[in-house]
Structures are given as structure tokens and as C-alpha cells.
Write a structure and sequence with these properties.
With 79 residues, this protein is of the alpha+beta class. The termini are far apart.
């Protein structure tokens, strides 16, 4: 998962394993994520994480907050 984040972000976001899984567990305890064990296709079972309905709502709110923040920063930089 950390590798996928790195590649998807064009190597800008680097998440350490020691930070990633505790964060996933916190999100799961808050009811924002669910997980299940699935066949990985190339070895042992792998835990698959997905957003719950509450997680999708929270994500939408966080994205809106980040967009407002980025817009405000852009205004400051342009002035």
C-alpha cells in the first residue's frame, strides 16, 4: 500500500509502514474503514481495506476542506 501511494503521487508522498498501518487501524476503529482478508494471487492472504459509507462522507468533507485551503494559499501566493 505504501508503494502504491508513492507511485500514484509520482513519488511525492512517501508513507512509512510504521505510520501507515496504525493510521489504517485508527480509521477502522472510527468506523471509516472496513477490512477483510482476501487471496493475494501471489502468496499469502492480504488484508483488503475499503471505505464505509461514513468513510466516504468523511473523505468528501476532507477533500472539500483541502480544496478551500489550497485555494486560499493560491490567493496568498498570487497577491
Amino acid at each position: 500500500m505504501a508503494q502504491r501511494i508513492l507511485l500514484t503521487s509520482k513519488e511525492i508522498l512517501q508513507v512509512q509502514q510504521g505510520s501507515l498501518y496504525p493510521a489504517l487501524h485508527r480509521l477502522q476503529r472510527r468506523g471509516l474503514l472496513k477490512s477483510e482478508w482476501k487471496e493475494s494471487g501471489n502468496g499469502p492472504m492480504a488484508k483488503d481495506y475499503s471505505l464505509t459509507a461514513a468513510g466516504r462522507k468523511c473523505l468528501q468533507e476532507e477533500v472539500a476542506d483541502w480544496q478551500r485551503y489550497a485555494g486560499a494559499v493560491a490567493l496568498v501566493l498570487e497577491s
